[in-house]
Design goal:
23% strand, two-stranded antiparallel ribbon
């Protein structure tokens, strides 16, 4: 009901791990309970209102999609040498949250 694995629930029950706020809120809502911690009691309402907009989920981009978003300033290339018909290159790509956040 909480959307956690059995092993995770076991850790919660044995007090080895503390559930996150989202799990605590869900438990309060599902079972109509309140939680008391160090003399402070709170229920599902203490976690604030439901989000109206869903949290964006990350998208796995293909290599070609990611390469199309690269800018020249992010690339560092170096010719290592020539081997027969081939040139050996070293290409380093500087990460940028702007590029990969689409």
């Amino acid at each position: 009901m909480l959307g956690v694995k059995r092993q995770t629930m076991w850790l919660y029950v044995r007090e080895k791990v503390t559930p996150g706020g989202d799990i605590l809120k869900k438990a309060c809502q599902l079972w109509g309970i309140s939680i008391s911690r160090k003399g402070i009691e709170f229920s599902a309402g203490a976690f604030g209102p439901e989000r109206k907009t869903p949290i964006p989920q990350p998208k796995q981009m293909s290599l070609f999609e990611a390469l199309e978003l690269l800018r020249e300033a992010q690339l560092d290339t170096e010719v290592i040498g020539k081997s027969g018909e081939y040139f050996e290159l070293r290409i380093r790509i500087r990460s940028s949250t702007e590029v990969f956040s689409r």
